[in-house]
Amino acid sequence: MSNGIFSVNFKASTGDYGSGLVVVKEGKANGGDPHYLYQGDVPKQSGAFKSQFTISKWREGNTNVVGIDNYTLNAAGTVNYEAGTIELKGSVVGASHLSMEIMGIKISDAV
Can you give the pLDDT at residue 94? Predict the structure, then answer.
């Protein structure tokens, strides 16, 4: 099943790190944490993929792990819905020296 709620952990090239939740449903990923939202497209079937994710600040009080409040992340990785995992590596559009790695584990089905 390609729908699910994933717990995600990310680490940036800046040395900063964080975590959040992402809901994958119908080929879309929507998630966030206490200060940022993440949105993008994911494949409906397991495998390797490339996509862009929009990261948007929705509440004051914290600095993003790459030090930019609103940006697009060019990412590539794999999703395995059967095993319940997602792994991505990406860099910030217009600032490729800023990168991040993302690891996710499915914690529940999405309804």
Answer: 97
